[in-house]
Specification:
Elements (H helix, E strand, L loop, with lengths): L1 E3 L1 E3 L2 E3 L6 E6 L4 E7 L3 H20 L2 H17 L1 H12 L3 H18 L2 H4 L4 E6 L2 E9 L2 E5 L7 H12 L3 E5 L6 H13 L6 E3 L4 H9 L3 E7 L2 H13 L3 E5 L4 E5 L5 H13 L9 E6 L2 H16 L20 H16 L3 E4 L18 E4 L6 H4 L6 E4 L5 H10 L2 E2 L1 E5 L3 H10 L4 E4 L15 E2 L2 E2 L7 H6 L1 E9 L17
Parallel strand pairs: 1-5, 8-9, 8-11, 9-10, 11-12, 13-14, 13-19, 14-17, 16-17, 19-20
Antiparallel strand pairs: 2-3, 4-5, 6-7, 7-23, 12-22, 15-16, 18-21
Helix pairs in contact: 2-4, 2-7, 3-4, 4-6, 10-11
Length: 499
Amino acid sequence: MEQIGHWINGAHVAGTSGRTADVFNPATGEVQAQVALASQKEMDRAISSAAEAQIAWGATNPQRRARVMMELVRLLNRDMDKLAEAISSEHGKTFPDAKGDVQRGLEVIEFCIGAPHLLKGEFTDAAGPGIDMYSMRQPLGVVAGITPFNFPAMIPLWKLGPALASGNAMILKPSERDPSCPMMLGALLKEAGLPDGVFQVINGDKAAVDAILDSEIIQAVGFVGSTPIAQYIYSRAAETGKRCQCFGGAKNHMIIMPDADMDQAADALIGASYGAAGERCMAISVAVPVGDETADRLIEKLVPRIEALKVGPYTAGNDVDFGPVVTKAAKENILRLVQTGVDQGAELVVDGRNFNLQGYENGFFVGAHLFDRVTPDMDIYKTEIFGPVLSTVRAASYEEALGLAMDHEYGNGTAIFTRDGDAARDFASRVNIGMVGINVPIPVPLAYHTFGGWKRSGFGDLNQHGPDSFRFYTRTKTVTSRWPSGIKEGAAFNFKAMD
């Protein structure tokens, strides 16, 4: 059986802790590999060598660092299929979806090629007699990324690109459920010209996370995952004075106005709700049609589309709509929540509980579900299900629909489908959610804008990728310099204003 270790100092190294975790093939339920779980000693080795390597890397001029990013883009394009294969085999998502995982990360690396411009400081000439003032953006030192199972390429690339381009060294602790792709990224970075030790991949569990949080060397932590863990990491990082950005759970609402193109809205909901088996923090899990007539028309459009979805392993071809969920425990939790919805009175319009795929009976497949007449007090509305389950909450008015999205504890993404520009502008302006789509179902910003949720979906002041990422991974130093001419006037003991 394959043994997956760590990536330390530019090489694959075997784990030495004696602890491992199983890596499953979600389509069959079989264990296909074992991944090492790092010890404190292994963490200390990786962190100390990263600190040593960062000194020279941080002193490398930004243009040379950007050339590593440029070469990484070429290598990611070259190995796109290999990376996607690794993702699909361990996560279960379809092959086209896995390639999209890599592509959206690659786009951030493309953005990072512009690091020299983004790292420029500010300058004021002659702020006073013979006095100039300027600012410099300097790397933090060693930073860490703790990334989730559902995007094993995209989120690590979102973290490592800006961090490395800014001159930091990075410790990446990916999910132990699908570790192969992050390990491959380490090898690609070495091939791209990144010096050994600047990027380390440490596989592990909570012990590795706590080692990162307790380290006095690590200066910043970026995390994506569930809200309880985001809060834990954010509070622990704050206690030790680390800069921290943590992104948590979501319950994304899509409002469908009576004037919306119902076919367009239904198609958008199908992809946004059931793509990747719903295992996306930007998945639409709540549809909010305004008015009963709108709701009836929407349900009528959705049912045949949902019943026609093709569920299967990624090896079944590119026409598979979604694959299994990542673990047996995830499957059981989804089905438990579906039953809770039924017990609490929601109408299960499409019932996928008895879905069974011949030849893959032991796989972690979950059928598509559609609920109607869900109310805000139900568990399936309040909880992030992270599965192929769409809940429909009927709203009597636009204001009620807006209030549903605004009152929910999560504020990651939202969308509105309408032909009314006034309603769209009002929605975008008023809604207290970080990312908004107008006739766009999954409003994930492009790489040169910033990604981040509000409320209990995001903890920290700066977001992922875009200009915010370079602010997060650098400190600003302001220098006031004076080159006096003539005879020295001697010491001055009063605070002198600038003339």
